[in-house]
Queue: 4 jobs
Job 1
Amino acid sequence: MKKAVVILSGGLDSTTCMGIARDQGYDIYPITFDYGQRQKREIENARQVAAYYHTAGRHKVISLGFLKEFGGSALTDESIDVPEAGHMGPVDSDIPITYVPGRNLLFLSIATSYAEVIGAEAIYIGVNALDYSGYPDCRPEFIRKVEEVMALATRVGVEGGPIRIETPLIHWTKAEIIREGNRLEVPYHLTTSCYNGQEKACGVCDSCRLRLKGFEENGSKDPIPYRV
C-alpha cells in the first residue's frame, strides 16, 4: 500500500489532510511537532486524531523546543500577546505576529527524512494561501522550491523517485475545507484551532475567527466548545 507522511498539528486543516490522504488510498504516517507552542492542547488533539484513524502506533511526536528559545512569534513567546479582534473585523493583511519563523521549512525537512526512511511517496501538509496570505511559508512558490531541494537532497530524489509535497487545501477557503472534511467524516470534534490553548477555544483570535466563519459559511455547526 502506498504511504504518505501527514504533518498533523491537531487542527482543522491538518486533520482534513489526514482524511483526504486516507480517501486517496494512502497508508498514513502522522508526524506532530512540539515546538514550544503555547497551545499545547493541540498535541493531545493530534494524538486523538491519530487514534481515530488507527495510526497511533506509528504517530511520531518530535520536539523542536529550540523554536521557543528563539521566540519572535506570539505562538512561542509568552511576552507577545496573541492578537484579538472583533468578530467582524478584517484579518490583518501583513505578516501576522503569529507567524513562526522557519516553522514549515523545518517541518518539511524533518517530514522528508521520515518519509524517505519509511518509503513514503508523499508528504501532506495543510498550508493555505488564502486565510493567511502574509505567511511566507504557506505560498505555492515556497512549496515548489522545497520540493526541488528535496529532489536534490534525498537518495530517492537522486535515483528518480522524488517525494511529493501534497497541499490539497492551499487554494481553498475555510468553508470549502470544512465542506470536504464533512464529506469525508473528518473528526472535527477532536481538533482545536485556538492560538491560546485553553480548555475552551477563545473564539476571538484570528484562527478561531476564521474557523467559526468557515463553519458559518458552510452552513454547519462547529462541534468544539468556545469561551466566546
Note: Residues 86-92 have pLDDT under 50 and may be disordered.
Job 2
Amino acid sequence: MLKGRLGLDSAKVPHSDRAGCLYLARGALTARDGTLAFLQGAPGPGDALTSGDYAIPLQGVSMILLGPGSTVSHDALRLLAHARTALAAVGEDGVRMYTAPPIMPDRSGLARLQARIWADEDLRLMTARRMYALRLGEVLPHRDLNVLRGIEGARMKETYALWAQRIGIEWQGRRYDRQKPLAADLANQALNHASSAVEAAAAIAVTATATIPQLGFIHEDPGQSFVLDIADLYRDTITIPCAFKAARDVMAAPAENIERVTRRMTGRAISAEGLIPSMIERIKALVEGRG
C-alpha cells in the first residue's frame, strides 16, 4: 500500500479519506459480488501479497497500480469507473508507466490552479524558482529562467562528480547519443535507465493528482513537461545514486545486464522511499503554493 493521499472531496467515498495507491502484480483483477477481487498467483520477491484470493476495497483506494503478469476483466474496469478509482498499468515497482485511464476526479482544483500559475509569467517563474530551491537547497535571487538553468547545470556536474567519487566509479561527464544509446559508458547508460524509471513514477503521481502533464514550469516543450519537472526533483536523491551503484555492480559482474540491474535497484528505492506518495504530496504543495 502506498499512502499518497490526493485531497479530493466529493466522490462517493472522498479521496481525502482513501488510502492512496495500491500496487498489485502477478494476478487477476476481477469483479465479484459488486466489488473487486484479486487472485494473486506466485508472488515475486517484492510483492506484498502471498498467493491467494483477496477482496480489494474498491472505494478505499484512489488508484490501483497493476504490475507485470496481471490481467483485468471488463467488469472490474466498469466498477473502477463507477467508483472513480483510477487504474494504471505499470512496470515492476512502478519503474515504467504504460497507460492510465482518466482518474475522473471529483474536483478540478489542482488542474485549474496549475493552469492559472502556468499562464501567469510571474507565478510560473516563482514556481520554477521554488522547484530549483528544492533541488539546490537555497533560493536563488535570479529571475531569468535561462540563468537558473545554467546554475543548475553547473551544480549537476559537481553532483555527478561527487557521487561518482563516493560510489567509487570513473566518471568522464554526461554523454548520451540518442542514435547510439549503447555507445555510452555504463554509468551514462545507467543514468538513462534510472531516469526513465523515476520519470515513470512521476507520471503515476501526475496522473493520480489529475494535474496537467503538458504544463511544466521548468521544462516547456515536451508533452510530459510537468512529469519531467517532478522527476528532476529526485535526481540527486534517487536517480544518480541508483544509477552509479548499478554501474559499479555491473562493472564488478560484467555478465549482468545494466538495464535490468538499474531498473531493479531503482524500483527498490522507489518502493523503500515511498517515492510516489512523496511526489503526490509535493505536487499538491507546489500547485497550492505550500512549502
Note: Residues 202 and 261 are 20 Å apart (CA to CA).
Job 3
Amino acid sequence: MPVLRWIRRNLVVIAGLLTLAYMILPNIVVMVFSFNKPKGRFNYAWQQFSLDAWEDPCGVADLCGSLSLSLQIAFWATLGATALGTMIAFALVRYRFRARGAINSLIFLPMAMPEVVMAASLLTLFLNMGAELGFWTVLIAHIMFCLSFVVTAVKARVMSMDPRLEEAARDLYAGPVQTFVRVTLPIAAPGIAAGALLAFALSFDDFIITNFNAGSTVTFPMFVWGSAQRGTPVQIILFATALLVFGVVFFVRALHNARRPNTNALHWGVSGRSGRKHTP
C-alpha cells in the first residue's frame, strides 16, 4: 500500500517529530497555565483565562528575591567556571606535563558522579573548614560542579583548531598576546560560549547541591520546591514561561549568527599588523 510505503520511507522523520512533540508538549502546557486563574492553592486544572499573574509577577512573597539570587549565583558561577575551565582546557590540549592523563580522567568525575554524592562531599568540606553556609558556599559549589562541563566543551573546540592559523599570525609579526586575542580566542569562542551557556543553565537549575550547601539561603529552584508543598502560584509558571521564551529566542538568534560567515579571525592580517613590513 502507498501509505505503508510512505511510512516506512519516512519512519525516522516521523519518530523524530513524535519525540520532539513529546518533549515540547509539557512546555506548551506550562505556557498555557501561566494565563490560568486557579481556584484554591494549586494550579493543576484549567479554570479561567486571566492576566493577573502577568500584571503582578512579584505578587508572591520572596519569589522575585529568590529568582534574583539564582540569577546572581548563576552569573558569577558561569564567569568563574568559564574562566577556569577555559584555562584548564588550553593547558590540557596545548601542554605536556606530569599527571596530564590523570587530570584528563578526573575532569569527567563530577559529570559521572551522582549530584547527591558531590553535594554531601562539599557539605562535609565546608563544615570541616568552619565555613558558614550561604551565598558563598553555594557559589563555590556551583563553580566546582560546572567546571567539568566547561572544560569538556572548550577542550573539544581547542582540539579541532588548526595550528597553522596561529602560525600565519606569527608570520605576520603578531605577538603572543595579539595572536591569542585576534586569532585563537575568536576561533575558540563558540566552545567557550557553549560551555558558558551550559554552566549558566546547570547553575540556575541546580537543586540538590544547592539544598545541601545553602543554609538559610533560598534560590529559585528551592523556592519552587517549597511552594509545591503548599501550593503552586501562577507566578512560578509565569517565570518558567518567560525563561523558556527567552531561551528559545536566544537559541534562534545564536543559530542565525552561527550560519553567517565569520572571517574576522583571518581578515585582521592586513589591518592588524604591527606596522612593520615583511621583508623576504
Note: The chain has 14 helices and no strands.
Job 4
Amino acid sequence: MPSVQDVGGPVAHDAVVLAGGGARRLGGADKPGVRVGGRALLDRVLGACSEAGATVVVAAPRPTARPVRWAREDPPGAGPVAALGAGLRHTTADTVVVLSADLPFLAADAVRRLLAALDGQGAEGALLTDADGRDQPLVAVYRTSALRRELAALGEEHGGLAGLPLRRLTAGLDLTRVPDPVASFDCDTWDDIATARARIREHGHVLDEWISAVKDELGIDLDVDTGVLLDLARDAAHGVARPAAPLTTFLVGYAAGQAGGSPEAVAEAARKATALALRWAEETGEAGKPDGNAAATPADGQPDVAPDATPDTRPDAG
C-alpha cells in the first residue's frame, strides 16, 4: 500500500502543541484562549496542523474547534521540555510537528514546507527562523526517534526534564532551517496581540481570515474556490438584483451540501447558478428590444422595472 508521501501528500506525522505556561508577559491571561480574528490562538494553531494523524495538546483540557488528545507535564508548569516529553508519549508517527499555541499566522502550508525540508535534507529536525534569523524550536518538525533520544539523555543527566530550556534539547540535534518571519510570529505581549489583530484585517488578508473563521465556527473542513463564489455573487447582484447575491450563494451552498458537500459539488452548483444569472442578465438587456410581440416600453411610457429593483440611495451608489 503506498504511503502518504508516495501519493504526493505530506509525510505522515503526528503533532504536539504546547499550550501551557503562565503567560507572565500577558499578565497571566489565558493566552491559548485569546482571540485573534474571532478565533482562539489555540484553535488557529490546531487548524494549521489538521493533517496530523494524531494531535496532542499539552495543557489542561478545554473546548477546541477540533478533537485532540490531552496530556500534562508532571508537575504542571515544569517547562517546555517536560511538556514536550509528556506529549511525545502519546505519539506513534516517525515524524512529529511541535508547535506553541500562540502562532496567529501559522498555516498548513508552512507546516508542509517544514515537513518537506525535513524529508529533503535528511536532518533530524526542521524549524522556522523569525524576522531576526532566530531559531523557533516550537515551530518545527522533528524525527520522533531523535527527540526521544535527546529527552532520555537529558532526563538521565539532570534527573528529570523539569525546568530545562529548549535549547538544551535542540543543541544535540542536526537541524535544517526555513526562514519565515510571518508564520513564526508569536504573541508574547499584548502589543503582539494588537499587531496580529490589525494585520488580519488588512485588505490582503481579511477575506481569507474571515472564511477560515467561519469554517471553524460551523465545523466545515472544505477547500472552496472563493473566486468562483465571488464571481457568482457579482453576476447575481448585477444581473438580477443586489439582494440576489447573498441569497444565491446560500442556495448554492445548500445544493452543494445536498450533493455531498465536496469542492466539486460546490463548483458545479456555482457553475449552474452563474449560468442562470448570465441568462437572466441577457434577458434583461434584451427586454427593451422590439420582437414583434412586445413594445420597447409599456403603454404608460414608464420603464419596466422589477418589483425588487428599488432605487439605490446609499451614499456610495454609482
Note: Strands lie at 14-18, 35-36, 39-40, 55-58, 69-71, 95-100, 125-129, 135-143, 175-179.
